[in-house]
Design a protein that fits this description.
568 residues, alpha/beta, Transcription Regulator spoIIAA, nine-stranded mixed beta sheet, 23 helices, globular
Length: 568
Amino acid sequence: MFLPTTMEEVKKLGWDSLDIILVSGDTYLDTSYNGTAIIGKWLVKHGFKVGVIAQPDINSDKDITRLGTPNLYWAVSAGCVDSMVANYTAVKKRRKSDDFTPGGINNKRPDRATIQYTNLIRRFFKNSPVPIVLGGIEASLRRVVHYDYWSNSLRRPIIFDAKADILSYGMGEKSMLELANALKNKTDWKSIRGIGYISKEPKEGYLALPSFEECVEKKENFVKAFELFYHNCDPITAKGIYQKNADRYFIQNPPCENFTSQEMDDIYGLDFERDVHPYYKKDGHVKALDTIKHSVTTHRGCYGECNFCAIAVHQGRTVISRSEDSIVKEVTNIANSKGFKGNISDVGGPTANMYGLECTKKLNHGACSHKRCLYPETCPALKLDHSRQISLLKKLKSIDKIKKIFIASGIRYDMILDDNKSGDRYLEELIKDHISGQMKIAPEHTEDKILSLMGKQGKSILKEFKNRFYELNKKHDKKQFLTYYLIAAHPGCNEKDMLDLKRFASSELKISPEQVQIFTPTPSTYSTLMYYTEMNPLNNKKIFVEKDNGKKQKQKDIITQTNKTRRY
């Protein structure tokens, strides 16, 4: 079933009111790739009545009031992308299209959607005692003092600007359910893991981050605050933290405990319609559905910890995988669904080949505070063996009515090379059956100086992988090629570095890259920290940062204004 979006739908379910109303900056896609759908279905499974208001008009009460007042709480999310990232390019130009809006025109999601939606609720439900809970990636990554690229300033924790009551960060299934139960039973919710709130007093035993005022005063204080924040995101090792803002404090409890494989199976085993809700479908085609309708999530989390990526902060540094049986069951259900043409568009997660691969030490004792899993080299404690993934792919492609299983999620090619047991077999499996003409990889850059600032291994790894890829293609008589995703204007990168990238791509990779994006400073990443402070946080040394948008574009143009890509 779909979650209700109107009172007529509520009454058809036999409900007289709703316990929780979810408000989202995305249209309502009932798939496991939509946080609103997952949280809503999860709460319904546990006995709560939940409705959805997607992309409400912020200039009237017509949308926000149509489901009435919830009994327990409002849950507000900007959607699956930070609203400022969704609305603007890296050079701050307004985006014309939005893949998560019916009709594809970017005219439904307001800037700073989390704040706007909360203000909308406050405007039309004055004096309501029902708490407003912030969630989703925008709230999660803006939960402490953060650099905001679009205003070029540090901003307070978003809960202050939104004037909300509670903030749920990270993966919200556990915290949102515990909160619902606490409010239903009228018990204290302030110790629930994975949430934050505003207090007049600091919390005893919690770590103090430099205050908002101290961060604004000195960039070194902001670096310290970020470091304390980042290293207290692991469920096993993290302490609670607080951060002063004027005369009040943002209190953040430790993160929710890691999911078990069984819990992941339960979440992704929920009944999803894999379609746009009819209330919104009438407004036009939703492009995002094309890629996710027949895609399958195998795991959450990422230990790659690329400095420009916030997945580690939001989903966690620990990979939690579903069971093979659960994934096989989901693909079988898709294969038997109406309108299925035989192709699964993706089987993966943040990084496809992290499925089933995790450090046992980390699972038992938490992530290391002093080193990373894959940088500057792969940690020997991470025992790499892609055989489980090979087994899964073989099972999936043998399912009746399945023609092709594609892997569209990112691949860490350094992990393939470091797997002496089954790395080659895994790559062969992909080349033979799971890519269509091209394989997308993301080296991001080729110059070791820039790669080190990105937290990625050097270019020699890329050369080795490229050679192995084409050798295996030749072995299997395949004419497939690699597509490279690259980043221009990352902190530390200048025009010379881009010229060196271009020369390397031409002489060593035999390509003229086309997939180049300009670095966007998004909240809660190390690269954004570098962008704002113009320092390398690892050694506090000054680094060059290109901040002129015209010159950022020029860095990109160095790569893209070339001849057509040469292919093997």
